[in-house]
Model the fold of this input.
Amino acid sequence: MIHGRGATAEDIISLSQHFFVNEFSIVAPQATNYTWYPYSFLANPEQNEPWLSSALQVLKALTDDLVKQDIPTQNIFLLGFSQGACLSLEYAARNATKYGGVIAFTGGLIGDRIYQENYKGDFSGTPVFMGTSDPDPHVPIERFRESAKILEGMNAQVEKREYPNMGHTINQDEIDTVNNLFFKYGD
Done:
């Protein structure tokens, strides 16, 4: 679980109480100074270096560690909100494989434009949920849609939801949809 700008690992972990994940291990890294990278996700990636590469490396190290603990990638879920959603999507697209799922609450792929050359691999049908407000003050709806299209082109099964004037938050429909898509077996 990847927190957003200005938030903490504890903040994003608290979201897990709304999901049917009692049998799951929850891992949530903490960004230095409460941010994964200093500028907007829409900035040229070079402006967000070396922080962006460092943040992506944190996710890679966590994923590699889980795999070493005999948790295959198809049992790993990536979940983030806002800056954490952008980072989760970017990491997944750069390291596409069969994951348990990718959940992005208000996010898109990182950069002043889509850098298709960064995205390699095949999601092999990985389910992806993307939800956002239309409009959102931080994530343009066009980038949200374009990001979903890129993931679909990499064989992800994308479920996207756009909520009129929701604001920069997570709503109950998103929680319910994620529970139904990913955590069906529940309590």
Notes: The mean pLDDT is 96. The CA atoms of residues 94 and 118 lie 6 Å apart. The radius of gyration is 15 Å. The chain is about 30% helix and 15% strand.
